Amino acid sequence: MREMPACDYQPPQYEGPTRDAVLATRLQYCNPAVFTYYKEPLMIVDGYMQYLFDETGRRYLDLFAGIVTVSCGHCHPKILERTQTQLAKLQHATTIYLHPWMGELAKRLAHKMPDGLDVTYFVNSGSEANDLAITMARLYTGNYDVIALQNAYHGGSPSAMGLTSHHTWKFPLPQGQGVHHVKNPDPYRNAHVDARDIEDAIRMGTSGQVAAFIAEPFQGVGGVTSGEPAYFQKAYETTRHYGGVCISDEVQTGFGRTGDHFWGFQNFDVVPDIVTMAKGLGNGVPIAAVTTRREIAETLTQRLHFNTFGGNPVSMAQGLAVMDVIEEEGLQANARAVGGHCIEGLQKLMSKHTLIGDVRGKGLMLGVELVRDRRIKDPATTEAMAVVEMARERGILLGKTGLFGNVLRIKPPMCITKDDIDFALDVLDEVLGKV
Ligand code: PMP
To answer: Is 220 in the pocket of ligand 1 (CB under 6 A)?
Structure first.
């Protein structure tokens, strides 16, 4: 069994309140809906690149990256320096004044997009970005209905919750007006899904015209499921035929995470009309964005539209530093190489442990579905929970997801190394043998 690779960062001694005191205060004063992972909630007080540290100084290899958000590494020194410089200069004035960074970051995003997708609106969260994308799609097309995929996650605001398609994340409240969920392509559980479902949904559930089709190229919360290129191509063609625009939710899949491409949609040879993004663009600061074509963006000028923190200089400075670091440090290529190495290792584990029903994803956007019986694909939910607990005891922080909570998520900071992955694979091997 390998050791966790060495790390030259040593966190300073933690001097804050005890873990028990922190937990008690949280339980007393924070909304109980704010949940924690693990039977014994873990307190994280320090971070460096792909590692996190608890209050005792114990180091963990982070395979979940603040829920797929820390793209470049925790407290990445170059990013930190630029953001700290900005913090000391100006934190907030709003977009009613000029400041250089917002236009600069919008330009950087435009350079990464297919031609024509070159106008960006900055907000603070993925939910907000999707809300805004749907608003623009409706205004631009003059249509109301939206096609989304089953098993999708697009956020928790009332409008984004309506796009989301997991009962676990939906409240019995008005939401999702005009949203029609069609079967998601998932070669493991829905092998024969066809984009013709979209046509049926439009013909039978709408006036015959739609505002948009929205999808994650790889469904993140849904368990890293994805379809064939042909699915997306047909879905986009059908949507456009019925008057709609196509929205790619890149909140998890953007910024090189899938390895071969900077954006998730590029894996499927399609060009969306609107792209939403968040998480990885900020490496930890609240930032999100909607990039689209000018004529779609212009619909928002019919009225006033404002977002207090969107485009603020601190998030913009960090976003620009993230774009530089992804480029300078070749993080997309690293996602491809290390991710490929990880998939190979996971496939080997699959040949050994029958609990693994499926290994899927691309780059460093990977899922491992656990099932009790490979033939009937009975979700191994409690086993997944046990794997996550036991991995944590051995220094590995994993994510867990999917409708049944039986998919392990491996989506680490993209600076992770093959040695880190080898250590994680050893831990998984041991733990899978024990559940
Ligand atoms: N879209 C996707 C694909 C996501 O994974 C998430 C968050 N998990 C969101 C949207 C919502 O982002 P936020 O939590 O920042 O509102």
So the answer is: yes
